[in-house]
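Work through this:
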Amino acid sequence: MCSYVLPNPPCTSLRVFDETKVVHVSAPEGPSPGVVMKISNCVVGSITLATTVAGANAAFLGITGTNYQVVDGSRQFSVMDIYADFNGNYDKLVNYYGTTAHTGFVRTSLNGALNTGSSLLPSNGAAFAQATGTGWMPSASAASNAWDSFVTIGARTQDYTASSITADPNFSNGNTVGASTVAGGSNSVGAYQGAGWYTAAPLDTHDLAGTYTDKRIMLGRFSVETTNMLTTDVLTIQFKGNVTMKVNGTSAGGGTTSQPFFDETFTYGFVPAPGAFALLGLAGLMGRRRR
């Protein structure tokens, strides 16, 4: 059995309600016999960190992130699942990308230090976590665990491949096993645009909002190992760029094409390293002895 604990990791600009829930579910297949997950409980009990997107219409509600913690043996991970939210059954999304006018960034910030968008290694030390042998693209042989990072258009598990998720030419390490950043590229004249990905199977049902009861189309899972992080550390992710979608349709291929731009930042919650608490306790004890 896995224990999923839902307390209140940090939220920016949203009230967090004092509520803790514990549910038990069957353990997923994979290397982790036990997983403990802590999920943000924001916006009147919802587990979504809600944000607004400029240019959103009646069918596209915005970009949101769901954050939770995963414990795998002695390692701890903070996981951010990012979605495009809709309210129509036939609303669909086909890609995420950057342009020179509206650059794309998927990058971490640790204590205010942002990663460089084109870097193959995280300059701030906050790397995206990949399981052994996996990269950003979904794969039928991908490890089945709750923290492995991947990009997607719709499908919520990394081993689903029918959507044929493909890295665009500006996703420099999109097909690199063990990639620890989302490295964006530049155009032919050297102007930075940013990484992107798309579905090469736009008629797959996983690209439709109505496939999911919450009508949220997932864009990616972005995990960071937090095993050794301290109580004072602040970890965020910037998710910026453009998406192409069809909205207000009455059939799977219908609707109006829209390409909104967004720039959102989400805060990771995490459980600080036990050593941090031990040091604080030791400092307090020494202080009392001095007095």
Q: What stands out?
A: The first strand starts at residue 2 and ends at 6. Residues 1-52 have pLDDT under 50 and may be disordered. The chain is about 5% helix and 35% strand.
